[in-house]
Every structure is written in C-alpha cells, then in structure tokens.
Specification:
Layout (H helix, E strand, L loop, with lengths): L4 E5 L6 H14 L7 E6 L1 H11 L4 E5 L16 H6 L2 E6 L2 H5 L5 H13 L3 E6 L3 H6 L2 H12 L5 H6 L1 E4 L13 H18 L2 H6 L1 E5 L7 H5 L6 E4 L6 H8 L3
Parallel strand pairs: 1-2, 1-8, 2-3, 3-4, 4-5, 5-6, 6-7, 7-8
The structure holds glyceraldehyde-3-phosphate.
Glyceraldehyde-3-phosphate binds next to strand 8.
Enzyme class: isomerase
GO biological process, one term: gluconeogenesis
GO molecular function, one term: triose-phosphate isomerase activity
C-alpha cells in the first residue's frame, strides 16, 4: 500500500519570516493528518529556519533543485550535502520550470537523480507534456521518453523509493486542471511504463503524484483515482489553510 505524499512547491515565494510564519501555522493544522506524508519544498534561503520549526512534526522539507556535484566552482548551485544539512529529505528534480525556463536537459536530470540516490535524498522527478503535445496526442510518447532518459541506469530499488510527479505543463498555474480521468489515464500509463522498464514490484511501489492546479475543492476527486499517490501543489500550498485542506483530503 502506497502512502500518499502531499508536497507543496513554493517556487520563488516567501521570505524567511514568511516561511517560518507559514510552517508554524501549518504544523498545527496538519498535526492530526493520518496516512499521508507531508512535505514543503521551499526556496533554499528559507530552509534553515524552517528546519528549526518543523523539528519532530509530521512535515518534511524538500529543496526545489539540487546540483549533481558535491562541491566546487558551480556558482549559485546547491550540493546534496548542503540541502541535507538544512533538513531536506526530498529534492524536486526536473520541474518543468527548470526544464523550460532554465534549459535543464534530460541528461543533466539523469545525473541529478543518480546523485540524489547516492546521497539518500528522495527525488521528486517531474515529467509531463506541453499543450501542443497533448493536442497532437503525443503525450504518452513524451512521458515515456522522459522516463527512459531520466531513469537511464537507475536501479529498481532506487525507483521503488522515489517519487514521480506527472505535471502537464498546460495545467500548471493556469487554474486548468487535468480531469481526474485524464490524470489517472496517463499516471496509469506511467506505472505500466515503469513495469516495462523494471518489474511489477517496482511499478507497484513507486509513488506517482499529480500536479497542476490542485486545490482544496478538486483534491478529493483526484485522490480517488487508484494510481494517484498524492499531489505536487504550487499556488494552493502558499497558504496554510488551503494546503492543510489538501493534506487532509479525506
Ligand atoms: O510544482 C507544482 C506545480 O507546478 C503545480 O503548480 P500549481 O499548483 O500552482 O498549478
């Protein structure tokens, strides 16, 4: 049985004071959440102070990005040990904004994934198609290609412990959610592709989230789908009240 993961991705939002205030509020609101994992992937500058607040609560922390080298002349990048030192359990790898705006390639993301596994960081690997690909009917090919390229050389045991996030680009920040049936159809396909690439046990174990305009009012029907194991939430994770409602979707 897979435990759902509700992860907030704050993107480039919240100063340290704002971040601390929000997790202080959130920790009380989600303290009684059962059978769900909770994470906030915050801007790097916020994580140290947030880590002091989340302590032994049920909120885990994640980074929004991570480089694949341990140290060196890589201005502005964050190493795995740096993000672990501020309490990160998770790291988002390959968010579409990193791919599209910052030109991150599938090869680079493959290196980042392998580095995450080597450092006991749970990667949340984002995959998903653009609107033009959905309209052309090539969205299945797109996610299959991303899985093959990003997971190249990755062992089954690592895949079992990672998180995949299916995020159609046309649903991110647009208020336009994939219907639960659309999300289930492609997430089921992603699980079947993992089975083809690895085996049935790996496909059964890997958690696959949906991301793209998940809100308190639509989370329940999304989570009712058998293959959807949580959500990667942008806008609605910025307010403690709305994110807590998503965490406590039942
Ligand atoms: O990482 C989160 C996704 O990009 C979804 O963002 P959104 O919930 O604001 O659409």
């Amino acid at each position: 049985m897979r435990t759902p993961l509700m992860a907030g991705n704050w993107k480039m939002n919240k100063t340290v004071d704002e971040a601390v205030a929000m997790v202080n509020e959130l920790k009380d609101l989600v303290a009684d959440a059962e059978d769900v994992d909770v994470a906030i992937c915050a801007p790097a500058v916020d994580l140290y102070a947030m880590n002091e607040v989340v302590g032994d609560t049920n909120i885990d922390l994640g980074a929004q990005n991570m480089y694949y080298k341990e140290s060196g002349a890589y201005t502005a990048e964050l190493s795995p040990s740096m993000i672990k030192s501020v309490g990160c359990k998770y790291a988002i790898i390959g968010h579409s904004e990193r791919r599209e705006i910052f030109g991150e390639t599938d090869e680079l993301l493959n290196l980042k994934l392998k580095t995450a596994f080597a450092n006991d960081i749970v990667p949340i690997l984002c995959i998903g198609e653009k609107l033009s690909e959905r309209e052309a009917g090539t969205h299945f090919d797109r996610v299959k290609f991303q899985l093959a390229a990003n997971l190249s050389g990755v062992e089954a045991d690592d895949v079992k412990n990672m998180v995949l996030a299916y995020e159609p680009l046309w649903a991110i920040g647009t208020g336009k959610t994939a219907t639960p049936e659309q999300a289930e159809e492609i997430i089921k396909f992603i699980r079947e592709t993992v089975e083809e690439m690895y085996d049935a046990d790996t496909a059964e174990a890997v958690r696959i989230q949906y991301g793209g305009s998940v809100k308190p009012h639509n989370v329940k029907e999304i989570m009712a789908q058998p293959n959807i194991d949580g959500a990667l939430v942008g806008g609605a994770s910025l307010e403690a009240e709305s994110f807590s409602k998503i965490v406590k979707f039942k």
